[in-house]
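Honest question from a wet-lab person: if I give you the sequences of every part of a complex, can you actually get the arrangement of the whole thing, not just the pieces? Trying it with mine:
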Amino acid sequence: MKKIYLSLILTFSGVISANAESLTQLEGSFKTGPAIILIAILVIFVMVGVFFRAKDPADYYAAGRKISRVGSGMAIASNWMSAASVLGMAGMMYGFGYNGLAYVVGWTGGYVLLLILMAAQIRKYGKYTAPDFIGDRYYSRDLRIASAIFTILISFAYCVGQFGGIGLMFKWIMGLDYAWAVIIGASVVLMYTLLSGMIGATKNMQIQYVIIVTSFLLPTFIMAFKFDYFWLLPQIGYGAVVTDIVQGIPAPNISDGMALLNAYGHDFSVVPSPEYAMPWDPSTDTTFFQWVAICFSLMVGTAGLPHVIQRFYVVPKVTDARWSVVWGLFFISLVYWTAPIYSAFGKVLSSSPEVGVLAKDAIVVYTAQLAGINSLIVGLLAAGAISAAFSTVSGLLVAGASAFSHDLYVRVINPDSTPKQQLKIARIGTVIMALAVTIVALLKLGLIAQLVSVAFSMAACTIFPLFLLGIWWSGSNRAGAKAGLTTGVLVTTISITYFIVGLSGGSLPGQEFISYWLNVWYFAWIGAPLAVIVNIVVSKLTTPTPLEIKKFLAEQVHN
Amino acid sequence: MESPDQYNFSIFRPRNLHGRKNRNVIFTMLLIWAVTVFGFQFLLRGIQKPVPEKTLIMFESVWPKVLADDLSRDDYRSLLNSFVLVKGKNMVKPADQELLSDAISCAVFISMPDTLRSILLAEVAGIKSLKSQLVTAGGNDYLELSDQIREKYRSVIGMSEQYTGFREGSLEAPFLAASLNDTYPPSLNDASFAGLPDMMKFYLTHYQSVLTDTTFLGFPFHYFYTAVFLLVLFIALCIAYNILVEWRLRKEGVVE
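Yes, you can. This is the full assembly:
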């Protein structure tokens, strides 16, 4: 068997060597094949967007409530799986070892909370958007405005990481400068969102999901087969890769200067690197507390993200809302089981000093390149990553535009506006937001997954407590909600302020302490529970919730 | 007349039997969720022990001899080997990478005759120059430069083999070739020299336990549990919850 492998490798080495060598250069040139794939996919997206174009506000915000369970699950998964999932997560594991798995668990475990505590109840409440729910449940115009603003800010923070991912992939495919890549990518996604709205986006999300999964899974089968691991199910087969990294892989034999196979059957070698898999290893600069804090913040944030919650309004029935979570989680997990494979192969393929440490956010495509996979398949992978970012950004821009148009303009500024005016305002809001996100994305403030986790912590500190107590405790009143929200905002502001000051090289009192315990990537570990506690205490001390709200909750939501 | 208290609702104090059953299901699910996710991590944290890699044991056995200036040829190779095996990890911080390069260069050059050292230093300088050109090169230029660098690496490994014991094709050889500095004496000062044991300990000690050392389906068990099993469990929890809720709704004749 070994001889067969050996002869196969020797036979194919000549064929693939030119291709493999040209792939050693990971960046820099225009890649024709990948560019054609990307353009074809973008054209399909825009055509689907135009074909399923929103005709009125009900279509724009909630897809006319025409989406099936599986379709909604696919849309949830596609909407959810952003550049952070497809590009960022593998990068976190590559750079921070076991700590990166906190992102895998955090971004999936939150769906259990979402299902058990939110999905059906939100659908039963029957509101279009998160600010709609909050304004109505807490009988407060101020809270509607505040939550609309936070919905925009959360969508904004989330979008920044996505635009960064789009920029990286456009840069890789087109050989462009990062700034131009971000600007071009942002223009395309903006054009598409403006043309389609959510009904187009929902249809597109289903197509995007298929593209994301296919493009993401295909290279892992090839890599597992090529490097002689269990390839039929690489999501299990890569376990041996992880163990090989931990124990080290001896050098291959050399014949006439060419690497043959070593005792493990591989033509690469790795020094023993337990730090890759051992928990909170000191050399990864991560701790047990950070693992728990990141995981908890991402989980709670998942259950508080407006654009995720909003998806439960688009299903026809309450039971569909519940099952769409299950389908969504399953579709998401397919990708999340796969992301560590890129990280593991990336680790072994970059272990040679000739390759060196790879840029974390591009590890997925770099790994496929280093594995010598056909450049068209690598191009499809990059296009899939762009699809992931596109699907999320379009959902986020719609959520942000909804908050701007529906919750601020229609409910507060101009209640007599016509549907045409509302749609126009939604589109203006989308343009403003996309422009602002593009500017911030150009600053490259952090890794994609880290930037996105800011949005999760913000949602966990502000929106999640209002939904949790609003649904499950009729005693939570307007004053309690305002106090809880203020607490969440305060924690968020402190964390972000210290982050910005630290980034600019400055220092505030307790800079080191706050930067660790209230870090911008995971401040919700304390912010969210604090906001809940303050909400409860203040609600207990102030005027009770009005009878009609309690009655509605008891009869419509929980009966 | 309706009383405000009549419609009071809390997850802890449900209003009827249906609510109580619902609460019990929710709390059971949340308990399973919390214990399986965070409970396992606390367990992992609780039973972990700092375990040194073999490389650290090797390093610590020869370091006292370095301090006593009493190194045999084998000790010297063990020392070099331990430096190189840390240098080959790609999670080493840039400052520590430099320190390791200094230490490796020092250990290699110190044992060579002056003439060979001069030739080797020239080769390393050549590699450095080629690498700087590689940054801006593209297409065929990139490939040619890569080949030239590879050739020079081979040459460096071949010339130093007698003194390092690292043959071409060995695990350590490419890291050695990529680590050498083009100056001698190297910039390893007393302070950084004294810091080497702590740095080696930092990179070569890991938190391990029976959960990390047990292999399951090829994975270290804890890695499998977190990266694969927990996701399966989340889906199973969601399916179980939906089936349970819908079964109860049907049984109680509730239409949502």
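Two things worth pointing out. The mean pLDDT of chain B is 87. Chain B has ten helices and four strands.
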